[in-house]
Amino acid sequence: MQQIADWLDKLGLGQYAQRFAENDIDFDILSDLTDQDLEKIGVTSVGHRRKLLRAIANLKGGEEITSAVAAAAASPATPRAADTAERRQVTVMFSDLVGSTALSARMDPEDLRELISAYHKCVAEAVRRFGGFVARYMGDGVLVYFGYPEAHEDDAERAVRAGLEAQNAGPRARAACGEQQHRDLTAWLG
Asked: For 151, which DSSP code?
């Protein structure tokens, strides 16, 4: 018990040596103590309990302390990482096939569907190349996020580059639809 008394003296908390002795607390069970245990044996000062718990944790020489000591040592005023939200910037891009409504009057519905599908595929390829995320296909349009689920420092620039490349998706979609639609769409899509 003298070792505990000496240890408490080094911490400047020698006044608790008698309470530790009365409760048979030695170095073997010191690491099992919780904030509640310290309070029960008469360490009423919150500051002293925190100081003791930190000193107990340091005694283990960097080993992981028990969850009870860790929970007791954690300050209730400091939020845990899981309790805090992270604010991130997200760049949203929407790309659609211009003039598709007028085009629908000129084309067979199956052919138009094939054209829109090819357009979606071309835009999605451009978006993926620049690290974007296709959130949703909406009719002839594509809703895209940059900065979600993975953020980059240059997400806005990536969105612009993907948008510029997506401008070429119309002619590529036209070529993907085949030769018959190619003649019909040449004037329309440029």
From this structure: -
